[in-house]
Design a protein that fits this description.
4-stranded antiparallel beta sheet; elongated; alpha/beta; ABC transporter transmembrane region fold; 18 helices
C-alpha cells in the first residue's frame, strides 16, 4: 500500500487520557522512587491534617479561667512535630521524585530523537525544522510540568480534600461536610467547563507559534537568498502577520482566564462564608468550642488555598497536555521503511550491486523509474547519465534504502536489501554528494564523522589522501577550525575534499559519487576528480554524472531518460552507436571548446 505522509495528529483527536497513558511507561521505569515518593506524600498530608487538631487543643486549653491555666506542653509539642513532619516528608517527596521527572524527560527525548532518525526521507523532506524543534521543546517542558504539578499539587490536594471532608463528617454535623464537598464540586465543575472551552485558544496559540517559528528559522537558514533578492521586508511582514494572529489568540486566552478566576473566587468565597456561618452558629448554640472554630478555620485555610491554586495547576496541566499532544504525535508517526523481523546483518569486505527490474514512484500517480536493470560486479564501476529529472539521484536513494522499490529488487551480494538491516547496509556504502553539507563544528569532527572511532592519525591520513591536509594545517586553528553552519566557511572544493576524506575514513566497499564535481569550476573539478578516481579503485562504484568527461573510463555507462535505460555500454561503444549519449557528448565538447 502506498505510504501517505502525515504530520502529528491533530490535538482534538488525542485525548488527555491517551497522552497520560503514553507517558506512564516512562515514569514507571522508576517505580520504586514513585512508590517511595507516594508514601512520603501520604505521610506529609496525614501530618498536615493533624495540625488543626493540635491547634484546637492548644486554644481550648488556653480558653479556661486564669486560675486553672497551664501550659499545654503535649499539644504544643504535637503541633511542632506535625508541622516538622509535613515539611520533612514534603521535601523527601520532592527529592525522590526529581530523578523520576528528569529521567522520564531524558528517556522520552532520547526515544523521540531515535524515532525521528528512523522515519523516512519523505517525512524529513516535508517537515519544517523550526516548528518541529518548537513542538519537541514545548512537549518536554510539558512533561516536567505535568509530572511535578500532578504529584506535588493535584494528588496532595485531592487527598487532603478527602481527609478533611472525612474529619468534618466525623467530628461535626453533616452540613459541614456537605458544604465543603458541594463547594469543591462546584469549583471543579466550573473550572473543568471553562478550561475546556479555553483550550481551543491554547491550541491555536501553539499552532501559530510553531508556524511563526518555522518561517523565522527557514528565512534565517536561507539568509543569503533573502539578501540576494532583497526580500527582508517580505520575510518580516510574513513573520509579523503570523505573530499578529498569535497575539489575537493570546488576548482571547487572557480574557477567558480572567473570567475563570472571577468565577472561582466567587465559588470559594461563598463556601468559606457558609462554613464560618455554621461554625459561629455552633459556638453561639454551645455545641462547638472556640477551638472548633479555629479547627474549621485552619482547615479552610489548608483546603481552599491549595484548591484555589488547583485551578491554576489544572489549567497549566491542560496546557502541558496540549503541548505534549504534538510531541507524542511525532512518536506515533509510522515508519515507511523498517527492518523486517529477523533481518540479516551485511558483513562483507567486497560487494556487488544489482538492480533487478526496479520500478519506483515518489507519488502514486507519478512514476520515476521503469524496469531499471543493471549489475555492478565487485570492484566494477558503472556510471549513470541523463538529463535533469531522469531519475539518476533516485538510484542512490534506493540503494541506501531511504525508500523501498515498488516492484523488482535491489541486491547486494545477491541478497535483496529488504532482507538486510538498514544500519549494516548503509555501513557498507559511502557517498560523495554534489552538495556536501557539513556540521557546524570543527574540520576534525566532520572528517571523523565517517568513523567516530578512528584515531587522530587515521583522520590525518584520510585528509592527506583527500589532498586537504596541507590546507588544514595552513589554517590558524588547524583541524579545530570551525566550518560554520552547513560548512559555509569553506569553499565548494574544500567541502568536497572534506567529504572525500570522510568517505575514505569510512572505507566502504560500495561507493556512490552523486554528481560529486558538477558544482565546481573546471580546474577544481579536475583536481578533485583525481582523488575520486583513487578512492574508487578496488571499490564497487556507482557514478551519477553530469559531465561526461568524468566517466569515460567507467566499465559501463547507462543513459537514463524519463526513468528508463535507453542506452548502455562503454564510452567508445556509445560514441560509436551515435545515439543519445553521442548527442550529449558532442554538446558538452562544443561547450568546452567554446570555453
Amino acid at each position: 500500500m502506498r505510504y501517505t505522509p502525515r504530520g502529528p495528529a491533530p490535538a482534538t483527536s488525542r485525548s488527555d487520557l491517551h497522552a497520560i497513558k503514553e507517558l506512564l511507561p516512562f515514569v514507571w521505569q522508576f517505580k520504586w522512587r514513585v512508590l517511595a515518593a507516594m508514601a512520603c506524600l501520604v505521610a506529609a498530608k496525614i501530618a498536615s491534617v493533624a495540625l488543626p487538631f493540635y491547634l484546637k487543643d492548644v486554644v481550648d486549653r488556653l480558653s479556661v479561667p486564669a486560675t486553672i491555666l497551664a501550659l499545654p506542653v503535649a499539644a504544643l509539642l504535637g503541633y511542632g512535630f506535625a508541622r516538622l513532619a509535613t515539611s520533612v516528608f514534603g521535601e523527601l517527596r520532592d527529592a525522590l521524585f526529581a530523578r523520576v521527572t528528569q529521567g522520564s524527560i531524558q528517556r522520552i527525548a532520547t526515544r523521540l530523537f531515535e524515532h525521528l532518525f528512523s522515519l523516512s526521507l519523505r517525512f524529513h523532506m516535508q517537515r519544517q525544522t523550526g516548528g518541529l524543534s518548537r513542538d519537541i521543546e514545548r512537549g518536554t517542558k510539558g512533561i516536567g510540568f505535568l509530572l511535578n504539578f500532578t504529584v506535588f499539587n493535584i494528588l496532595p490536594t485531592l487527598l487532603e480534600i478527602g481527609m478533611v471532608a472525612a474529619v468534618l463528617l466525623w467530628r461535626y454535623d453533616w452540613p459541614f461536610a456537605v458544604v465543603t464537598l458541594g463547594t469543591i464540586a462546584a469549583y471543579i465543575a466550573f473550572t473543568l467547563a471553562v478550561t475546556e472551552k479555553r483550550m481551543v485558544y491554547r491550541r491555536s496559540m501553539n499552532d501559530l507559534d510553531s508556524k511563526a517559528n518555522s518561517k523565522a528559522i527557514d528565512a534565517l537558514l536561507n539568509y543569503e537568498t533573502v539578501k540576494y533578492f532583497g526580500n527582508e521586508g517580505y520575510e518580516l511582514d510574513r513573520y509579523d502577520k503570523n505573530l499578529g494572529r498569535w497575539v489575537d489568540s493570546a488576548i482571547k486566552n487572557q480574557v477567558s482566564l480572567n473570567f475563570l478566576n472571577m468565577g472561582q473566587g466567587a465559588i470559594i468565597t461563598l463556601g468559606i462564608t457558609l462554613l464560618l456561618w455554621l461554625s459561629a452558629d455552633g459556638v453561639v448554640a454551645g455545641t462547638m468550642s472556640v477551638g472548633d472554630v479555629v479547627l474549621v478555620s485552619a482547615y479552610l485555610t489548608q483546603l481552599y488555598a491549595p484548591l484555589n491554586f488547583l485551578g491554576f495547576v489544572y489549567r497549566e496541566i491542560k496546557h502541558a497536555l496540549a503541548d505534549m499532544e504534538r510531541m507524542f504525535g511525532l512518536m506515533a508517526q509510522g515508519q515507511e521503511v523498517a527492518d523486517e523481523p529477523g533481518a540479516r546483518k551485511l558483513k562483507a569486505a567486497q560487494a556487488s550491486v544489482e538492480f533487478e527490474n526496479v520500478d519506483f514512484s515518489y507519488e502514486a500517480n507519478r512514476r520515476i523509474l521503469f524496469g531499471v536493470n543493471f549489475t555492478i560486479p565487485v570492484g566494477g564501476t558503472l556510471a549513470v547519465v541523463g538529463s535533469s529529472g531522469a531519475g539518476k539521484s533516485t538510484l542512490s536513494r534506493l540503494l541506501f534504502r531511504f525508500y523501498d522499490v515498488d516492484a523488482g529488487a535491489i541486491k547486494v551480494n545477491g541478497i535483496d536489501i529488504r532482507h538486510l538491516t538498514q544500519a549494516s547496509l548503509r555501513q557498507h556504502i559511502g557517498i560523495v554528494p554534489q552538495d556536501t553539507v557539513l556540521f557546524n563544528d570543527s574540520i576534525l569532527y566532520n572528517i571523523a564523522y565517517g568513523n567516530p572511532l578512528a584515531s587522530h592519525e587515521e583522520i590525518v591520513q584520510a585528509a592527506k589522501a583527500a589532498s586537504i591536509h596541507d590546507f588544514i594545517m595552513g589554517l590558524p586553528e588547524g583541524y579545530q577550525t570551525q566550518v560554520g553552519e552547513r560548512g559555509l566557511k569553506l569553499s565548494g572544493g574544500e567541502k568536497q575534499r572534506v567529504a572525500i576524506a570522510r568517505t575514505l575514513l569510512k572505507d566502504p566497499p560500495i561507493l556512490v559519487l552523486d554528481e560529486a564535481t558538477s558544482a565546481l569550476d573546471t580546474r577544481t573539478e579536475r583536481a578533485i576528480q583525481e582523488q575520486l578516481s583513487q578512492i574508487a579503485r578496488n571499490r564497487t562504484t556507482l557514478i551519477i554524472a553530469h559531465r561526461l568527461s568524468t566517466i569515460v573510463d567507467a566499465d559501463e555507462i547507462l543513459v537514463l531518460e524519463q526513468g528508463r535505460v535507453v542506452e548502455r555500454g562503454t564510452h567508445r561503444e556509445l560514441i560509436a552507436h551515435g545515439g543519445r549519449y553521442m548527442q550529449m557528448w558532442a554538446l558538452q565538447q562544443s561547450a568546452a571548446d567554446t570555453d
